[in-house]
């Protein structure tokens, strides 16, 4: 079951040059510190260069400069971190899935399932669903009626796709994620909330990844949109009618309120929060736990919050924060004396 | 499959007056900007009034003043946003569910299921469960033993209801939500944690809505309570023995610690956090990401956190926050000179 | 069905001394305020001592000093909160599960399932899984291929265990939790993200508890580790290659970024966030919503954020926070005059 490759095979897969023995075989991938002689490793971050002298790795993915200083077998290419990414799938531990519909799966008669698709144990495919070539749907996952999955989509275990969701080619949705549940729409009148039925959908592009237990709500009117190449980590909230631009990456715990539009190529660190109806410029960086309450028209790096400190010291400063406006006025008065 | 209504039919449903042609037919609902001639639209927020002149909508839901300025077909009523809410369900895209138990569902022999209820694909109904008229349970959902679902409850796909949970009429639980899991109760002794078995339950009232992947824990002793008309968005944490008062609305990502009691008619914005054992007054507004560490005896609007700013500027201010108490003392000294 | 115990039976279970009638029977457990005459109660927090005079409880778990002042039947031991924890399981409302594989469960032929294990309705056990004695797997739960569950593990309803996950004896995983999903690993090159296949695993120790909808990602290379006795609440994010030391307790909504190492016996309050690659000392306390951006080499109590206040007052102070560095410079100037 263990995958085994020669360095020349691997070099072909990532466009690297072999330094040393092209027939050397490796059957695993590990860090410089932990790799054994049968394993491949890599050096991407210069901070780890010191481990190169002592690593027991059978071969190392290196940039050209590091390769000159390394006597062992190596795969040499300009971007060793990219090389590591590209070769990592060779050592996947996931067993994959056989094409076909498992006998325990329940597929509605009106659904169209490509014969190359793999529909797993206890999966549910509702009416009018369309499933393209090489789609993989793992155990316990439900695909709601009238949803469309393009080629090579992979829905992991216990995913929920609600009705009328469109998912582009090669997109991966991780366990427990919920795509297309109702947006949070309510009108207050006569002392209570009246539900606004959410009649829009969700459109997810190609090459997107959605993390575990992340929620993407359907639009109130019109669609919620996740554009090509977006990366969403776990436990993220994407509210109704949000738009996430191409190749934006969002870390765990982020919440984006309704109708906010995040640009392309943004990077949003963990647990940041966005108010609704904002527009965030392409290429913006938002730091962890930042609270974004207004649109950001200009790319840049934005933050909020206080640093952390010992609680005793913090309590004193917090009291002063509460008095900050008054303190500023007192300084003003002193200046005027 | 497309729903189609005349304006007079719709006017009856929401108590509006028809302006123009009562026999005009509409078969969809959309924003003023995007509506086509077969679609209904609405104007609720004055900021969008400028779109009224150019909309292609077949008819528009309007307040009396806007209606006077509008030459096209309209449904006129005092609160057009409420009219939109009330008519939105006419255009639902959800296919609904047929009454009866799907052959793949597993219903324990001791459960009582009303014949008008719809039990979906691979749903699980455990021992002693009671399911009233017109309940709808979607695919993959599990209802734990001895739970009680009142009439017209709708559990979406892959919901988990643990044992001994009570859910009132017309309440809707969205995908992936977990109701009645153990509260986080542990006693520390002899260098380790000892589990406190959570023997209380969860009681959810009528007309409640619970969002995707939200968690409501069962009580340690006595129940966790969600009162009538409460609206909970996605990914919310409701700890053991929390009480949420009637018609309170809570946005995504909020966490409420054990035994805290939130009043009626509160509005809590996204990702706010509440310490345990607090009491929050009826009608309180809490802003996004606010950290509530003490009880709030008086209704009002409460906030915490710093605004966001460019990271470079933020870093300088954060350093000063750390020195804030010292700065205040220095100002005091200057004043005393 | 109701459990009933004499005080002498209960005293044996928790090492208490009976004060009063050892044959007194109790069939429930409740707070001092709510207990009826057939119920046991407890006094652990001195703040509730005033309820002792008026409680209707049939018997009370007490410390030695409180017992001297109490005339009723009691179980007396040094740590009454621990006594409560130890006796709470006697009054569990959960019906338990019968040994054996439910006919609707799908167990791969290559899986090894101990005959004393209980595999619930619609549960899925994939290839190569190993399930030890007295394991309990509830309805709708999926165990991915090659995972190993040690004795007395309990997976609640709709849990997802991905492939190659190891779970130690007596560990409990609550509904909707996802263990072993992919870490968030991507390399940016050529204007897009390249997936880094996550080939590490997850190793969870003994006597661990994992809350509902919590996510623990598998390692990129090497394992994510949750050590013995750890307690994780709901909706927590544990990223790839995080290590959580023994007996650390983490409240709901916390996020821990990749490769961060949390020490033993730490207590982390709700919604705190940790950057990646940090090391946190054993015994550290982190307060709610704190933002931890650097390693903490010394145990202590750490906090961040501002207190909450009325929004109007808050807005004024927030403006001043933005000017804090400038304010500090102005004070400096005044001092130099």
Molecular structure report:
The structure is a homotrimer of 337-residue chains. With 337 residues, the first copy, chain A, is of the alpha/beta class. Chain A has 3 domains: 5-91, Udp-n-acetylmuramoylalanyl-d-glutamate--2,6- Diaminopimelate Ligase, Chain: A, domain 1 (3-Layer(aba) Sandwich), CATH 3.40.1390; 100-302, UDP N-Acetylglucosamine Acyltransferase, domain 1 (3 Solenoid), CATH 2.160.10.10; 311-337. The first copy, chain A, has an 11-stranded parallel β-sheet, with no helix packed on it. In chain A, strands 9-12-15-18-21-26-29-32-35-38 form a 10-stranded parallel β-sheet, with no helix packed on it. In chain A, strand 6, helix 2 and strand 7 (74-76) form a beta-alpha-beta unit. The longest helix of chain A has 13 residues, at 324-336. Chains A and C meet through helix 3, strand 40, helix 4 and helix 5 of A and strand 22, strand 23, strand 38, strand 39 and helix 4 of C.
pLDDT below 50 for ≥5 consecutive residues: which ranges of chain A? none
Assign the CATH architecture of the largest domain in chain A: 3 Solenoid
CATH superfamily of the largest domain in chain A: Hexapeptide repeat proteins
Tally of structural domains of chain A = 3
Q: Strand tally of chain A, please?
A: 40
Based on the structure, what is the oligomeric state of the protein chains?
A: homotrimer
User: Average pLDDT value of chain A?
Assistant: 97
Shape of chain A: flat
Cα-based radius of gyration of chain A, to the nearest Å: 25 Å
Give the CA-CA distance, first to last residue of chain A.
82 Å
Beta percentage of chain A is 25-35%
Going across the major beta sheet of chain A, what is the strand order? 8-11-14-17-20-25-28-31-34-37-39
Please identify the top-level CATH class of the largest domain in chain A: Mainly Beta
Main sheet properties of chain A: 11 strands, parallel
The name CATH uses for the topology of the largest domain in chain A is UDP N-Acetylglucosamine Acyltransferase, domain 1
The total count of helices of chain A amounts to 5
- Return the structural class of chain A: alpha/beta
- Report the helical percentage of chain A: 10-25%
Largest interface: A-C, 73 and 76 residues
């Amino acid at each position: 079951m263990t995958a085994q490759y020669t360095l020349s095979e691997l070099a072909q897969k990532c466009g690297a040059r072999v330094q040393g023995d092209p027939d050397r075989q490796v059957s695993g991938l590990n860090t410089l510190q932990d790799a054994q002689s049968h394993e491949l490793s890599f050096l991407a971050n210069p901070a780890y260069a010191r481990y190169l002298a002592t690593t027991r790795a059978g071969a190392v993915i290196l940039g050209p400069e590091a390769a000159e200083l390394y006597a062992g077998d190596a795969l040499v290419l300009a971007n060793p971190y990219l090389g590591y990414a590209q070769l990592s799938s060779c050592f996947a531990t996931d067993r994959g899935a056989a094409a076909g519909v498992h006998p325990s799966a329940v597929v509605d008669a009106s659904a169209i399932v490509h014969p190359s698709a793999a529909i797993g144990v206890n999966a549910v495919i509702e009416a009018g669903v369309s499933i393209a070539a090489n789609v993989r749907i793992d155990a316990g996952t439900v695909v709601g009626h009238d949803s469309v999955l393009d080629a090579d989509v992979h829905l992991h275990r216990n995913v929920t796709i609600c009705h009328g969701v469109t998912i582009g080619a090669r997109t991966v949705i991780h366990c427990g994620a919920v795509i297309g549940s109702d947006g949070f729409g309510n009108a207050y009148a006569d002392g209570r909330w009246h539900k606004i039925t959410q009649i829009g959908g969700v459109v997810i592009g190609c090459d997107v990844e959605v993390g575990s237990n992340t929620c993407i709500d359907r639009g109130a009117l019109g669609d919620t949109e996740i554009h090509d190449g977006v990366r969403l980590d776990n436990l993220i909230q994407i509210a109704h009618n949000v738009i996430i631009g191409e190749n934006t990456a969002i870390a765990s715990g982020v919440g984006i309120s309704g109708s906010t539009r995040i640009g392309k190529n943004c990077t949003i660190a963990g647990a940041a929060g966005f108010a609704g109806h904002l527009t965030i410029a392409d290429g913006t960086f938002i730091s962890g736990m930042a609270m974004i309450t207004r649109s950001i028209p200009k790319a840049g790096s934005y933050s909020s919050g206080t640093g952390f400190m010992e609680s005793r010291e913090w309590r004193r400063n917090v009291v002063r924060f509460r008095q900050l406006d008054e303190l500023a006025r007192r300084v003003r008065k002193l200046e005027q004396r």
